[in-house]
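Structural prep section.
Before we set up the soaks we want a predicted structure of the protein with BIS(adenosine)-5'-pentaphosphate in place, mainly to decide which crystallisation condition to try first. Input record follows.
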Amino acid sequence: MSYRLLLVGPPGAGKGTQAELLCEALDIPAVSTGAIFRAHAAANDELGQLAASYTAKGELVPDEVTNRMVDARLDESDVAGGFLLDGYPRNVEQVAALDGLLAKRGIALDAVVLLVADDDVVAKRLLGRAAEQGRADDTEDVIRHRISLYHQTTQPLIDVYRERGLVVEVDGMGTVEDVSTSIRAALDSFIG
Ligand code: AP5
Ligand code: MG
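Run finished without errors. Recording the tokens verbatim:
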């Protein structure tokens, strides 16, 4: 059984947290565009500097840059047996780009896991993380902007995948363990 999955949800829904648990259980790599941008920013290379100029404001990095980066990542050998994309695609244009990236490799998605969580809860989680980790985009204003951008720009792609019958919706408001159990159960009954 191959697993080619997307994990979609608002900032602070627990995508990164759940990606780690799910990927360990399914033995597939997690590919987080946000994490790749942060790694480049930490290395202070050209891509990192460019990405940071957008991520610091909670804006999306331009599609062309992001799509090219994902294309290169999907060429790496570890994703041959499956993968979980966390935070990509993030708008309908990126959905079309991903369709192309998958089609040229002759592969398709198995499911899109949607983590649902309330705005006020995710904002509180991110403010909590700001205190612990000091992520540059976890300031109150930028958190608010990331949440509103999610509703405007990212949420519409859920309907695209819903029409394709790929969306598996999971309540992201419980404990980390509860949410993890719900994701596994929902995926098991969806994919079999
Ligand atoms: P990205 O890194 O994807 O950030 P995000 O979507 O804003 O989401 P977060 O990583 O903040 O939250 P998460 O859902 O992963 O939650 P987490 O598990 O960490 O993107 C960052 C930026 O990069 C974007 O703003 C954009 O600029 C750029 N970018 C990325 N992808 C792009 C793309 N495709 N195109 C263009 N630009 C792109 O949990 C959050 C906190 O809550 C943690 O402290 C955690 O411990 C806690 N927590 C998790 N689960 C629970 C729970 N169940 N109960 C209580 N606390 C919990
Ligand atoms: Mg994350």
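Observations: The two ends are 10 Å apart (CA to CA).
Flagged for discussion at group meeting.
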